Task: structure prediction
Amino acid sequence: MSFKRILTITAAVAVVGVALSGCATADPTAAPTATSAGPAIVIGSQAFSENEIIGEIYAQALEAGGYTVERKFNIGSREVYIPAIESGEVSLLPEYTGGLLQYFDTATTAKSAADIYAALPALLTPSGLSVLDQSTASDEDSYNVTKEFSDANNVKSLADLSALTIPLTVGGNSEMQTRPYGPDGLLSVYGVKVSFTAIEDYGGPLTVKALNDGAVQLADLYTSDPAITKNNFVTLTDPQNLMVANNVVALINTKVFPADATGIINAVNAKLTTAGLVQINTESAAGDSPATIAAKWLKENLIG
Amino acid sequence: MDWLSKNWMLVLDLSWVHVGLSIVPVIVGLAIALPLAWVSFRFKRVGRFLVPASGLLYTIPSLPMFIALPVILGTAILDPANLIVGLTIYAVALLVRQIVDALVSVSSDVRQASVAMGYSSWQRFWRVDLPLAGPVLLSGLRVVAVSTVSLVSIGSVIGVTSLGYLFLNGFKRGIPAEVLVGVIATVIIAFVFDGALVLLGRFLMPWTRRRTS
Amino acid sequence: MNFLMDALNWILDPALHQGSDSLGARIGEHLAYTFGAVIIGALIAIPLGIVVGHTKRGAALAVSFTGGLRALPSLGVLILIGLSVGIGFQAPLATFVIMAIPPLLSGTYAGIQAVNPLTVDAARAMGMTPLQVVFQVEVPLALPLIVAGMRSAILQVVATATLAAYVSGGALGVYIFSALARRDYPQMLAASMIVIVLAFVLEGIFALLQRLARPRGTVVLG
Result:
């Protein structure tokens, strides 16, 4: 094949590609809307799939409402994305109330969903941030043990752990080590001394495997994780409220997020439930893409 | 491969991004390494410093390099520039030594003959030294291309999206198929790069084909 | 410069140097991975390289095999193995062995192959058995290239060992990954500089070893 021929083919492929992508963005069947001319709403997400899928649900709902959306998913943890939303680089993020409050006020004593939600505005307003309506869907960090460990040591609650004499190791992602509910909180609230093993998959398969294999005795898993019931893990109860309520909420930058779009996000959060989160995570573990899962959820809950 | 059938669009998109991130360091690296190697070869005193210095750069581990670069470049930590500059440094470091070695290996008889024919040193470099050093240069370029393609995925750890996204995402979601697809796609891109370089070598240096067959 | 000062302060913090997960222990883990993987890799790759180089059989296969291994992205391999064996040192070690094999194999193979065939013929003519030819002629003459292969294997693993922490395998990457999550730049910079210094020190030691490995009476190869 001559060099010239290769060039021609490459050029042809490029032209077709550009033409196709042009068609994809300019859907001829889409209803013309007045708002679509405005600047794009930049939606961010944390670096785990449940959060990305909620971000994708927000994105598709806004797009259905005629807004232009730009996705900046998988930004990372709060230390990374909070500065990004404060600067206006991101205008909307799916958040969790308890974790958000503890980020801004490490000394907070608020535990219940209502108290936490009420405490947020005073802390967020100075940074130009705000939260929209909170959802009933909650996804809390929780300490989990295997069924065998629970039965053998008669452990059902975090308070039961203090009676144990065996060394305990907790597995969780590395941020947990400095969070109030982490090893320090376990010691100060329940008097339980544990060592910590960082497992960087956010309660993912390695954390689950480590708990099953006995490499750790306690694992930080999210309550919306389908792996808890699948593996017969026992989520330890928390009588002293070490873990705070953590409801899904949309965090916005008030300067860049269009006020007339809040209704769309609030409508999504009104339909989102904890069972819905478990469902989302089950589909994600089965390999469906965030876009597919989000479209399905919207069809079942809002649009359909 | 149920996962692949559900997500092949994502794999395709990421593959293109991966290719883009890999091509730039190889080309820019070569463009920087050529003059540096020529200077090191012509002025032995400079070469005595430049060649070991580039060797030292090559020993810097990749992830630490990507993290340390913002201090020097003044970039943000999540800036893709850190990855591209870092990979370019590796390309330069490896190629400078390789090209100098190749130039040294050009027979001095040939060089003297070209001087006798009245070539200027500029002409001699482009028409005699570089073509004769070509095969060694090409083998260095192939090593650079393959290692660049595989190192690009490390960038996903510092927030630069590439096929490495599939490793981290598949890890968190517990889908080995997703990680495996990422590994295979990376290897395929590396092989395509390598094959393209071999073909380019045959096109630019037709005389090497005769020798090998 | 502030970042560098903060990084230095982080290294000098006495709390970092106490207990079972002190900086010293992390460096120890990093070195254990490096030498462990290279030793295991050498046990596999050097005999293989000697066989291929000596018999001249399977050379094409060996070249494409090492090329294929080189193209493997280390992070992907680590995660793939990590997902099947779980947390701990096994997945990182297995990954690093895979990373160490290509330079060791190609160094050994190239070294043996580069031995002058006349020298080998002379050794045979003197009545040496094939094993004597291998161990008294070919391997000693190939030693500088074998050590060069070890040197690049060490370099490869000392760099990649940073990733072990991603599957909870310890080593110096622990500081980098926990800092990346919290975006604690001074800590990730400090840990990165320690890894870089470690790589430089190992490189220096091996450059020296490589010089010592050259048999007396031979000239520099390449």
